[in-house]
Specification:
Largest interface: A-B, 33 and 33 residues
Number of domains of chain A: 2
Structural class of chain A: mainly alpha
Helix content of chain A: 55-70%
Radius of gyration of chain A: 23 Å
Low-confidence stretches of chain A: none
Shape of chain A: globular
Order of helices and strands of chain A: HHHHHHHHHHHEEEHHHHHHHHHH
Distance between the termini of chain A: 67 Å
Oligomer: homodimer
CATH topology of the largest domain in chain A: Neurolysin, domain 3
């Protein structure tokens, strides 16, 4: 058994290193690689993915796990080793249910489907994408049934992204959330300020050099260690972990969106802190990861919104910020704070404000659940999409590119993924509320963000995936997931900004 | 046999992709990686190196090569496939002679030896390094005897770096070269200009931003395609091939050495053009490489020296160059040309000028040959070193760091490597002389460098290692290696600069 445990640790380490190499290749592709290097890069990534897949499903690993999970052996394992064995066992069991012919068929369809989505979006024609989405959806539902015919396919999908969460719970949570959000949005829409507000920032000149100064300063404030991380630029900002001491984020300097580099940095650096903070005991193991996409997202959104878009933050930060940008000479702090917290329903999810963002997600969740359950046909998706946008936000997309073709996730079979964005938002509000109760957040206005980082490190980050998300949230806040904290937070903040009585 | 050929191509491709991944990791380490990422990076590189070693010496590959090299099969192979089989066969044969216990012992010693060299250099004390150099030397000589006890160990070493070259030839070539160089150097030293010359550039201000403009412009002029290459910065400039369409160079902006970024870019871009120009038919094969270090070096030095430090080059380039740097307002072209071509014996090889550089190399060659033959004891190396510097260049190192400890190569067992720098210099002069004869070089003063690149592509680059260096040189110039072209070139250029009659 000692031999098997050693071997398991070795395989886990190899998988960890291979994953880090793949991340390195992705990073370089998005930030630096010369254009024509793409084909070779794809070949290298395919080679690494094949190696990882073979290693994670090898007969050797199966035998090792089988031996270690025998009751007599299992009971002698340390707590962490038990969790490692459990996680591998679950993964192997799941993968073993899917015949390789299905995997092959699916990956071929996905390639074509992604290309069709791209063409459809460019031409703003859903009909080009329709037959592929039908196939992808059918294959994913089939896959879910192969994995476990007894449970709802959507719950099978959720297991990959938000382990422990059920669609039945999401329906209830999102139901209350939707109601609350629509109420807040409607209250805001009635105000004079909403009707008169204009996006003045768009027309101001924020030189890139000064934005870079802010980006660097912000990550330092947040506690992202410079000798363990890197900041670079890419078209779409992202975070990637090359190794436990080598976590990388990107940002982008976009014309006409001067705050984009600031908010995207707060967001990605939030992800990066999580990745940098796993307990070193988990190093090289399958547990050195977040337990769910939602919890990971909570760590980016808490910094992006609750911390870095708050009045407390700008009270201490604005004098320094203002010094970097001549264009803000005549803009006072309160004015600036209101400009960066404007609410405005729009078609594009990734440009959504704090109020409307979750409505974008709820719409996607409701639609994909209906698709999976067969209540909605793919051909009727654009109509259903537009109807919900009208109903929840009062706007109607002018074409499919702004509508049902907006995100590429469905083309790759990512059903059950969108809800994690909203769940993360709810976790972030719960964690922030708890920090307020414990007196942690009062440090923000003093310019001291270390206590926030320390609290998150202690209550969330260090655990990796040794616990399920709901257990981490329960321990940290004493409560189960609820939209209440988020809705209260929004009311307090935005009713003040818009003068809602 | 068809199956074996397919398999060989597959293995070659896998080796190619793995090598490219390792290059990617090295590149990132030298240009970008956060400081604390080092340990993880070392683990990843060790993993890749192990994979490559196992693949290159696997029983499967041995069997494939054995089958394909049987006369009946071999004769049916294409010309390129024959060469691929030959090259693998030679490599396998060589590696099979060295027992793995020797490899292990050597790699352990090298690690310690490299660390000892570093400490010794810092403390300027050769005695710290001495016992390790003794061991490394003994093991390398033993290895050479294991590989082939019948031939001179130095020729075994040369086979790795400059296939087809023998130490007996180098002795003759370097003998004539040394005599010629010392004569030229002494003639220059006697001139009034040499005695009065000062390094005025050192005191001028060359802003980095403008140096960057020049670096970009220069690589474009040389024909380094922007969609197949990258320029970045690192402490020591280098070139790395990530893939056939992804070749990367670095430069450095050094204070007090304003020309460093220019000359190092010309040098590295010269290497890069070679790597970018291999015949696409050789893609993924073991032949997509230069046949020797010397020939690769010739391609960097021809651009760095013969092209980009020539009077013809500056005749067309100086007006544009001058525009970038205010400090050159009162410096005319001829003046500038003389300043960037100053001759001055110094201790540091990598700062050597065109005349003294090869003397640095010849000293190392003579010393390492004596060490290998046992004519010189390691303990006597510093004395022998200093004696040669005094004799050939008229200067004496003040300490071991400036002397025998200067380069790290010996600490890693790189005997037989240094000569390739001087051999490359001689090849570059031969190739340039041939281009002059064919009327190619007259394009330089017109600002058109494409014909130079095209000629090198056609005569050298495209072949990869389908031929030995001497055959490529013979075909391109009609002659065998000789120091004459280089010495004539130096006399013509430097006697003009220094007014030697």
């Amino acid at each position: 058994m000692k031999k098997e445990l050693e071997r398991l640790k070795q395989i886990d380490k190899e998988l960890y290193l291979l994953k880090g190499m793949a991340s390195m290749l992705y990073w370089d592709r998005a930030t630096l690689m010369p254009k024509k290097g793409l084909n070779f890069r794809a070949e290298k990534l395919a080679m690494l993915n094949k190696q990882m897949h073979e290693k994670a499903t090898s007969n050797e690993l199966k035998k090792v796990i089988k031996t270690l999970s025998k009751p007599n052996n299992y009971k002698k394992l340390s707590k962490i080793d038990k969790l490692v064995v459990d996680k591998h066992q679950k993964k192997i069991k799941k993968l073993s249910k899917i015949p390789s012919i299905h995997v092959e068929k699916f990956s071929k369809i996905v390639m074509k489907s992604a290309a069709a989505w791209e063409e459809a979006k460019e031409k703003k024609k859903f009909s080009i994408f329709k037959p592929y989405l039908e196939k992808v959806l059918a294959l994913k539902v089939k896959e879910a049934k192969l994995i476990n015919p007894k449970i709802h396919p959507y719950n099978v999908f959720l297991d990959d992204f938000e382990e422990g969460m059920k669609y039945e719970d999401i329906k209830i949570i999102f139901g209350a959330l939707k109601e609350g959000l629509i109420e807040i949005l409607n209250n805001i829409k009635k105000t004079k300020k909403y009707k008169q507000q204009k996006d003045l920032l768009k027309k101001m000149d924020f030189p890139e050099k000064s934005q870079e100064v802010i980006v660097k300063d912000l990550t330092k404030l947040m506690g992202m260690e410079a000798d363990r991380s890197i900041i670079s630029t890419s078209v779409h900002p992202f975070t990637l972990t090359v190794a436990a001491d080598d976590v990388r984020i990107t940002t982008a300097y976009r014309e006409g969106q001067p705050m984009f580099s600031f908010t995207s940095t707060a967001h990605e650096a939030g992800h990066a802190l999580y990745e940098l903070d796993f307990d070193p005991k988990l190093r090289y193991t399958i547990l050195a990861d977040a337990p769910s996409y939602g919890l990971h997202e909570s760590q980016s959104r808490i910094w992006e919104n609750q911390v870095c878009r708050s009045l407390d933050f700008w009270k201490f930060y604005y004098p320094f910020y203002k010094k970097q940008f001549k264009c803000l000479k005549n803009t006072d702090m309160r004015n600036f704070y209101e400009l960066i917290n404007q609410v405005r329903p729009s078609f594009i999810r990734i440009e959504g404000d704090e109020i409307t963002y979750c409505l974008h997600i709820i719409i996607r969740f409701e639609l994909e659940l209906d698709l999976v359950e067969g209540k909605l046909k793919v051909k009727d998706l654009p109509k259903a999409w537009n109807k919900k946008y009208k109903e929840y936000m009062g706007i109607t997309p002018r074409n499919d590119a702004e509508g049902a073709l907006q995100d590429m996730h469905w083309s790759e079979g990512y059903f059950g993924y969108f809800p994690t964005y909203a769940l993360g938002t709810l976790y972030s509000a719960m964690l922030f509320t708890q920090m307020e109760k414990e007196g942690i957040t009062k440090n923000i206005r003093k310019g001291n963000l270390a206590p926030i980082h320390d609290w998150l490190h202690k209550k969330v980050h260090r655990y990796g995936s040794t616990m399920l998300t709901k257990d981490i949230i329960k321990r940290a806040t004493g409560r189960l997931i609820t939209p209440e904290d988020f809705l209260s937070y929004l009311k307090e903040k935005y009713y003040d900004i818009y003068g809602v009585k």
